[in-house]
Design a protein that fits this description.
mainly alpha; disordered N terminus; Pentatricopeptide repeat-containing protein; about 60% helix; two-stranded antiparallel ribbon; PPR_rpt; about 500 residues; PPR_At4g14850-like_plant
Length: about 500
């Protein structure tokens, strides 16, 4: 008898070629702690039957789904894929869907698409097979591909089920095409899913994202059953569309109809007040939430801290109280909460605390460094701000991205750290900000209050031309572009500058 990791074998087990896997020991197979998949010693036919068993292969795939997202699982998954091909198990739509899900889990979308495109004809009549590839595309934000699959599905004479339609609705919402959203809604009603709870919830979210809250209300009022998700989606929809009154009305209606608001509902209301600029209401609502015994979430704390940061000294004192709750509640482990705290302390000139909070982050994001640069700029520490900016650009302190227009704008807002160096250094700064090739910048707002401290009209024009002629207009998905280049001598043509800027933006869209 051989004891291996808690399992007895009559003979030494046969080691197979799987690596970095970990499955529970069972009578059919086992995985030792060295991540090697093993089979108990038996005759060749018995061992072959165990490896060809669809239930066994399905169990392996399920274990892969439960594992963390890790590229190190690529080789074992492909070995399982090979075994499925050898045993013709991929003729099962269920196993094919499982394999697509696994490939999606480890971020191998191309492999998932290959499994789908080469699937047997019989698999295409199975909704689970379609749902797996739809979900795989949604998981990597391939919304256009998701909708193309939906069109292909309809062309082949198949229709989504109650689990496929929510994925398609989500893709429509993210694309933001109003007509497409309404067409898919018609398809939902046509197929008889108009009263299915999770389908209706997705419709509520879809109309909220594209700003059609009237349509969202119509869907909501016709729902025979509403869950917390339904109510929260409505409150969040009004909040994201800056309609505080309707959000609060929905919050009140929720309580009147016997549905007690949960922490998500309260967080949505806090976000609604904060978006609309009602700092006092946000704080009072937070206090009421705590008095009601509702547990604060990390998101709600981040909202309240951000509001306190912009509410002057009195708000800063309230923010310090919230900071204490953050520490005692263990919310300081959330990066976005710490980022809000860094912003609050930096905004109020307590740079040392902002530096301390940043140093305590194990994984510092681009937003974290941006908050620190803003802290330096708010306190007039322009040399320190520009030093961090250059280190970011060189990749010395963060490899997640280069400096973008937001960080550069913060430096320019804080003062001119390069005044002694002259025009060349300032031009370098603007070029490094606007000439980046990043396609996923953090913000839609390019706010550069630049050069207002300079008297040279020529310098202002050169900086303006740098911004206009740069690549910024080619890839920035911004809502508007605000550049304050007001000349004290009145010679700078600010209106003409904005007209040129608008033309540059329109030419790219």
């Amino acid at each position: 008898m051989v004891l291996l990791h808690g399992r007895l074998f009559s003979r030494p087990p046969i080691l197979l070629h799987f690596s970095k896997f970990r499955f529970p020991c069972t009578p059919t197979y086992a995985l030792c702690k060295s991540h090697i998949l093993i089979f108990p010693y038996s005759s060749d036919s018995a061992r072959s039957n165990s490896r060809n068993d669809p239930d066994y292969l399905d169990h392996l795939l399920q274990q892969c789904i439960n594992c963390r997202n890790d590229f190190s699982y690529e080789k074992p998954v492909k070995q399982i894929h090979a075994q499925l091909l050898i045993t013709a198990s991929l003729f099962s739509a269920f196993l094919s869907a499982r394999l697509i899900t696994v490939y999606s889990k480890i971020s191998l979308l191309n492999e998932a698409r290959k499994v789908f495109s080469t699937g047997p004809e019989g698999c295409f009549s199975n909704s689970l097979f379609w749902n797996s590839i739809l979900r795989a595309n949604i998981s990597v934000f391939e919304y256009s591909e998701t909708l193309e699959l939906y069109l292909r599905m309809r062309a082949l004479g198949f229709q989504p089920d109650g689990f496929g339609f929510p994925l398609i609705i989500r893709a429509c919402a993210m694309k933001g095409d109003v007509m497409l959203c309404k067409i898919v809604h018609c398809h939902v009603l046509e197929m008889g899913f108009g009263n299915v709870l999770h389908v209706c919830n997705e419709l509520l979210g879809m109309y909220g994202k594209i700003g059609l809250m009237e349509n969202s209300c119509q869907v909501f009022d016709r729902m025979p059953v509403r869950s917390h998700v339904s109510w929260n989606t409505m409150v969040s929809g009004f909040a994201s569309n800056y309609d505080c009154d309707q959000a609060f009305w929905m919050f009140t209606r929720m309580k009147n109809e016997g549905m007690e608001p949960n922490s998500v509902t309260w967080t949505s209301m806090l976000s609604s007040f904060a978006r609309c600029g009602f700092e006092d209401k946000t704080w009072k609502f937070y206090v009421l939430m705590r008095q009601k015994g509702v547990n604060a979430t990390a998101e709600s704390l981040a909202v309240v801290i951000s509001v306190c940061a912009d509410s002057g000294f009195e708000g800063f004192q309230k923010g310090e109280i919230v900071h204490g709750y953050v520490m005692t509640g263990g919310f300081d482990k959330y990066v976005f909460v710490r980022n809000s705290l860094i912003h609050m302390y930096g905004k109020n000139g307590v740079v040392e605390e902002a530096e301390y909070l940043l140093a305590g982050l194990e994984s510092k994001s681009i937003v974290s460094w941006n908050a620190l640069i803003s802290s330096y700029a708010e306190s007039g520490l322009c040399d320190e701000a520009f030093s961090v900016f250059l280190r970011l650009e060189n990749g010395d302190i963060c490899s997640m991205g280069r400096p973008n227009v937001v960080r550069g704008g913060r430096i320019l807002q804080g003062g001119n750290p390069l005044q002694a160096s002259g025009q060349t250094d300032l031009s370098y700064l603007v070029k490094s900000v606007c000439g980046s090739d990043q396609s996923n910048l953090e913000s839609r707002l390019l706010k550069i209050a630049a050069c207002s401290w300079h008297q040279q009209d020529t310098l202002k024009k050169s900086v303006g031309n740098l911004i206009i002629c740069s690549n910024a207009a080619k890839f920035l998905h911004f809502a508007f572009l605000k550049v304050d280049l007001s000349a004290k001598d009145g010679k700078f043509d600010k209106l003409g500058f904005f007209l040129k800027l608008d033309q540059a933006v329109e030419s790219e869209y």
